Amino acid sequence: MLKKLIILVVLMLVVIVGFIGFGSKEIFNQEGYFTKSTNGLKLNSNIDFALPDQRNKLYSLNSDTKKVIFVFSKPMSHIVKNYLSNQPKEFLSSKNMLFVADISPMPVAIRNMVAMPDLKKSKYSVLLMFKPDLAKTFIDENTKDKIMIVNLENKKITNITLAINEEELIDAIK
């Protein structure tokens, strides 16, 4: 009995050390990522960004992008994730659309050990604002608990729709 308890304690310590050590290191290459805006995520603002997706592939906003879905809270990201998981693999690209999520409030260890493995299973790309400095350009306290669907023309915001459920999201991205 004592042997089993010692083995269990040792295994728990190994897991804790691994969680703290491995899990707390930044997994994203930090070079080349940025977010820019002339006036946040507001009508007539010009925006630009280069962000990694969950597989650490760099995506840049280009003039062909027509819509960007932004989420700044976990509940809203789950709504978008659930909807997109039921769409064809090329759904976002067929609509010239990107999905951007703010994961900067999430502790790095939790992100690396739990969230990233789950995101990597997705068939679509999620562009990630993993540092507060990347998110601060776009985040607005009044809308952070909503899904923001931003329509663009040559990187200029022409319309903004807010959604709080899947039905509103579907209407906004038609």
Task: Kindly describe this structure.
It is built from six helices and eight strands. The protein is α/β, with parallel strands linked by helices and 174 residues long. It has one domain: Glutaredoxin. The strands form two sheets. Strands 6-5-4-7-8 form a five-stranded mixed beta sheet. A three-stranded antiparallel beta sheet has the order 1-2-3. 26% of the residues are buried.
In a few lines, what is going on in this structure?
With 174 residues, this protein is α/β, with parallel strands linked by helices. It has six helices and eight strands.
Radius of gyration: 19 Å
Mass-distribution shape: globular
Beta strands, count: 8
Under CATH at level 1, the class stands as Alpha Beta
Q: In order across it, which strands form the biggest sheet?
A: 6-5-4-7-8
Mean pLDDT: 88
Percent in helix: 25-40%
Which class do the helix and strand fractions yield?
alpha/beta
Number of domains: 1
Low-confidence stretches: 17-23
What labels describe this entry?
single chain; about 170 residues; alpha/beta; Glutaredoxin; three-stranded antiparallel beta sheet
List the helices and strands and how they pair.
Blueprint: H1 2-21, E1 34-37, E2 47-52, E3 58-60, E4 67-71, H2 74-85, H3 91-94, E5 97-102, H4 108-120, E6 127-129, H5 132-135, E7 147-153, E8 156-163, H6 166-172
Parallel strand pairs: 4-5, 5-6
Antiparallel strand pairs: 1-2, 2-3, 4-7, 7-8
